[in-house]
Amino acid sequence: MSAMPPGNPASNPFVSSPTYLMACQQLRNVAREINLDAGVAERLMLPKRSLIVSVPVRMEDGRTEVFVGYRVQHSLTSGASKGGLRYAKNVDLGEVAALAMWMSWKCAIMNLPFGGAKGGIAVDPAELKGGEKERLTRRFTDEIQNIIGPRVDVMAPDMGTDEQTMAWIYDTYSMKVGYACPEIVTGKPVELGGCVGRKEATGRGVVYCISEAFAELGISPESATAVVQGFGNVGSVTCEELVKIGVKVIAVGDRYGSIRNDRGIDIAKLIAYVSRKENEKKTIVGYPEAEAIADAELLTTPCTVLVPAAMERVITVENAAKLRCRVLAEGANGPTDPEADAILAGTDIFVIPDILCNAGGVTVSYFEWVQDLAQFMWDEEEVNLQLKKQMLRAFKRVRDEAKARKFGNRLAALSLGVQKVSREKARRGLYP
Ligand code: NAD
Questions:
Q1: What spacing in Å lies between the alpha carbon of 85 and ligand 1's midpoint?
Q2: Which of 32, 90, 116, 262 would bridge 74 by S-S if both were Cys, CB 3.0 to 4.6 A apart?
Q3: Which of 127, 150, 180 finishes a domain?
Q4: Are residue 85 and residue 123 in the same domain, yes or no?
Q5: Mean pLDDT across the chain
Q6: Which residues line ligand 1 (CB under 6 A)?
Q7: 312: which residues sit within 8 A by CB, 6+ positions away?
Q8: How many domains does the structure of the chain reveal?
């Protein structure tokens, strides 16, 4: 089976994206290892449904600017599709399709009744002013109205979007259907039917996985150091949770730069520094109690656990052999490309793959959706207890699969995810 999806590459809108080709290559690797039916593999390579919309927005200076938005639903086999909405300058259809495919495997290994989806708008959110982000979000919601719904496709925050973005989507959708419909999005503010602990869920899940890996490797958290790339939702919460279990965070990076302090960075102080009103870019750069380091040095800083929590394809053939960590915990989606993965396979680095490591977010999103449908809200203790239970169960399933089939952790996680979706497809049959 080729890494290329079916159809004529010249007219295939996804294949210009290296991230999409990476997702296809991963699927091809696992399909070969588990002898997946070729027809099923072909169906899984192409997303079920993709929509590209133009989103005209009245800008603060009176101009009209048109943005391009995407919503891709990879699989509708297991239930409604589920996945984040990303605002990033270079987002394109192929990247969104890859992220949607990964969501399918992630929901499957967590045993959630969802297929994978993802959305994006090609925009740098840091450049939006005044009410532009709200108008962009509302118009995008309107444009994709026909393919979303609480039983069809449910969005959540991702890079460049947050609780407030979800609140606007919730309101816009509810205005259209004529009643309050909180279950149309997850990751919304708690006062609008959001789930307590959702904002922290991805970072918490990352650290549950790291703790399990440490236990298996005989590493005590108090002796461990961490390096984290990205200090947004996932990165900052991961840092906070690492500190809670005794790990020293020695270096952190964001899109503007990287900092290091071998005595340990005070994460509460760093969060306060980033949140200051005068820190308009909300960056870690300039934090006085650490020294600035080159971005290229961040990922190769010696540490016990390295957490990429920013963006995809940052660990490549260029730097994979230079990593100096014992555990690689992938908070971001797709941070390691397949060539880098092959290099890591020849090292003793324990990889916690993205579709397991960052699955805490979609798991608590699932809890939120269930609570909104049932109109019955849980307390944070219950949410965290259930999250921990689900994460530990999935971690064990992946490790058991890895040991049973002699797979690396990534292949094991993909294997479980792809097999579950394939089994469901086989049981439902091919319509008509
Ligand atoms: P975010 O927008 O809150 O934060 C992103 C962070 O990455 C920011 O600190 C930004 O400055 C940094 N960054 C951006 N470009 C960078 C670069 N070139 N180099 C270094 N840092 C850079 O986004 P987030 O929600 O924390 O998402 C981060 C990653 O985690 C993404 O890959 C996302 O898909 C994944 N993820 C997020 C969730 C969630 O619940 N938010 C769940 C699962 C996976």
A1: 12
A2: 116
A3: 180
A4: yes
A5: 96
A6: 157-160, 202, 229-235, 253-255, 309-311, 331-333, 358, 361
A7: 19, 22, 95, 98, 332, 333, 334, 335
A8: 2
CA distance 46 to 368: 29
- What the block records as the tokens of 308 is 């990429």
Ligand 1 atom closest to the Cα of residue 235 is 26
232 alpha carbon – ligand 1 mean position (Å):
6
Q: Whose CA is nearest to atom 22 of ligand 1?
A: 255
Q: How far is the CA of 244 from the centre of ligand 1 (A)?
A: 21
Beta bridge partners of 367: none
Q: Please check whether residues 217 and 260 belong to one and the same domain.
A: yes
Is 128 contained in some domain?
A: yes
Q: Measured in angstroms, how far is the CA atom of residue 331 from the centroid of ligand 1? A: 8
Structural domain range at position 147: 48-180
Do 274 and 142 share a structural domain?
no
Annotated catalytic residues are: 118
What is residue 11's predicted lDDT score, i.e. its pLDDT? 74
Question: Binning pLDDT at 50, 70 and 90, where does residue 3 land?
Answer: low
For ligand 1, pick from 90, 255, 256, 271 the residue to mutate: most ligand atoms within 8 Å of CB: 255
Q: How far apart are CA 135 and CA 161, in angstroms?
A: 14
> 137-175 pLDDT, tens per residue?
999 999 999 999 999 999 999 999 999 999 999 999 999
- Among 357, 392, 424, the domain-final residue is 357
* Residue 260 shares a structural domain with residue 320: yes
pLDDT in tens, 249-270: 999 999 999 999 999 999 999 9
User: What is the Cα–Cα distance from 86 to 256, expressed in whole angstroms?
Assistant: 19
3-state percent breakdown (helix, strand, coil) of the chain, nearest 5? 50, 20, 35
Looking at the CA of residue 354, tell me the nearest atom of ligand 1: 44
Looking at the CA of residue 335, tell me the nearest atom of ligand 1: 32
CATH code of 127's domain: 3.40.50.10860
What is the atom index within ligand 1 of the atom nearest the CA of 298? 20
